[in-house]
Design a protein that fits this description.
With about 150 residues, this protein is mainly alpha-helical. It has a single domain, classed as Globins (Globin-like). Helices cover about 65% and strands about 0% of the residues. The chain contains eight helices and no strands. Helix 3 crosses helix 4 (about 70-80). The N and C termini lie far apart (about 80 Å).
């Protein structure tokens, strides 16, 4: 009898531990997302980033005929997801999106320059700026045309 009740207590403890494990969500690290000021903060940076790219003689011609509202929507999702925010990127891969556009190293660097200025203007802390840039730099390989 005693063994039986010990067994049932053990069983109950195991089940409740299991329930806690299953019901505890794995929290994503959203500190970068918060440093950017969440969705609104990211939106301000991207608005400014695109104003600059569309005005910049080094980048503007690449966007002839492109749908800017669509690109901005995709970029907002992408940045938010990259920063650990509550978003899912639904756009195309970076390779698929940019292939054939002829973006070379100089145009890519100009885009990054415009993004840096947009972050600076929106008072994003420098360590947060660098964290985003570190996530974007590995994409250069897929965005630039290597021909
Ligand atoms: C790290 C840097 C960059 C990121 C993360 C990025 C991201 C994106 C995203 C998310 C889209 C929309 C994807 C979709 O429609 O599904 C896009 C489109 C586009 N991007 Fe970029 N981009 C970057 C750099 C650049 C640069 C430097 C240029 C030009 C100088 C550029 C030119 C374009 C153009 C023209 C489109 C529209 C393509 C189309 O509609 O067919 N991008 N980009």
């Amino acid at each position: 009898m005693r063994t039986l009740s010990r067994l049932s207590i053990h069983f109950m403890l195991t089940m409740s531990a299991l329930a806690v494990t299953i019901s505890t969500p794995a929290f994503a690290d959203d500190s970068l997302y918060r440093q950017f000021g969440g969705k609104k903060g990211i939106e301000h940076v991207i608005d400014d980033f695109y104003d600059r790219m569309l005005d910049d003689p080094r980048t503007k011609s690449f966007f002839d005929g492109a749908s800017i509202p669509h690109i901005e929507k995709m970029l907002n999702q992408q940045f938010c997801a990259l920063m650990g925010g509550p978003c899912v990127y639904t756009g195309r891969s970076m390779k698929r999106t940019h292939e054939g556009l002829g973006i070379d190293g100089k145009a890519f660097a100009a885009g990054i320059d415009d993004l840096k200025q947009a972050m600076q203007k929106n008072h994003i802390p420098v360590d947060a700026q660098n964290k985003l840039l570190a996530k974007l730099m590995p994409m250069a390989h897929d965005i630039q045309d290597r021909r």
